[in-house]
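Q: I'm writing up a methods section and want to include an example of the input and output format. Could you take the sequence below and give the corresponding predicted structure tokens, formatted cleanly so I can copy it straight into the document?
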Amino acid sequence: MIWAAWNASTRIDALPEFCRPSDRAAAYAIQREIVKLSGQRVVGWKIAATSTAGQHHIGVDGPLAGPLLAKKVLSSGVSVPLAGNSMNVAEAEFAFEMAIGLPPRKAPYVVQEVMAAVTTLAPAIEVPDTRFNDFAKAGASQLIADCACGCWLVVGAKTRANWRQWDLPRHAAIAYRNGEVAAEGEGANVLGDPRIALTWIANELATYGEGLKAGDLVSTGTCIVPVAIAPGDEFRVDFGVLGAVSVRLAA
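A: Here is the clean output for your methods example:
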């Protein structure tokens, strides 16, 4: 039902009770079935609701993980269709690329070892969507089943700066809609630090999946209040020395 709604740009009120996930384990199992139906590779992961603004936007009180499908991850400057999108927002995100995998294990991963597994960092824009009519009332389990409101991720060039020495919680991002400042934020809006968010998903996937894998891209959640967008808009985020990333929204 979810994959059919995704393809047709339609919405459902809720999954029927007989197949509605009652917990995270069942919700992530549904995600895996959606990946199979898509016929696409998982090239990484997104984290939804790592900021207070993001949590309020989708009606949850904590983060959710969702797969990034290969055909939905694009390079900066592209045009993506907005037709059929019911959320109509864009978000500014830090995206880490993993050098080595972090498989399931009993002991939780800590920030230092997760960061040691990272190869690089890039700026990103997420254009999320949902398959539910009222996503703010769907609840965490159904939203996880819905791939954590996954849709498009647009990724900028990998930074060449020495980002490991930066104060990422204080690192600013300025979002522009059609050349005008639309929102400003910083890394602290992402669970207090994007590195903490990355550690969260490493442990979430180690608990409910196969863990992060070498080569995975991980977008750590919006560091700005989601910005309303419409067909014809151009959305750009400037991360300073980290770089910039942009996307055009098509009808």
